[in-house]
Design brief:
The protein contains six helices and no strands. With 153 residues, the chain is mainly alpha-helical.
Amino acid sequence: MADTAGSPGASCVDRLTSYVKTQKGIILAAEIFISFIVIICYAASYTGGYSAVAICEMIFAMIFFGIFMMDMDKQIQIINWVWTDLIRAGIGAILYVIVFLTGVIGGHNDGARIAGAVFSLLAALLFAYDTYTIFLQIKSTRQHTAASTDDRV
């Protein structure tokens, strides 16, 4: 997904430091961090059930961070990693919007739930931005070939 500057024999720490400096690495690290903040906010509220979305999205972001950091996306060619990441980020954005709305609507007299809802909105914006950047990547790499109009084929 993102080219790391490390060589194939580089250590895990070298790969981590070089991947975090890329745009995709920064976005995935921010997704992990904001999901962790949402988990903390909803864990401190009266209703902790809304943290399930944040837990799942943080785990998925960690998995994709590890896959892209270790360049496994280039080794495992069975899965289209760009489209899988697009679906992950798009679903995450939609789910965080739903969590935001439910947190704001029913969060009266619960400050931690309102804080979780606000951070859920920030997470939704971050996941939507990730979806947009992945979409632009797909759009730029897709090759437009004209269909053959020759009847003799």
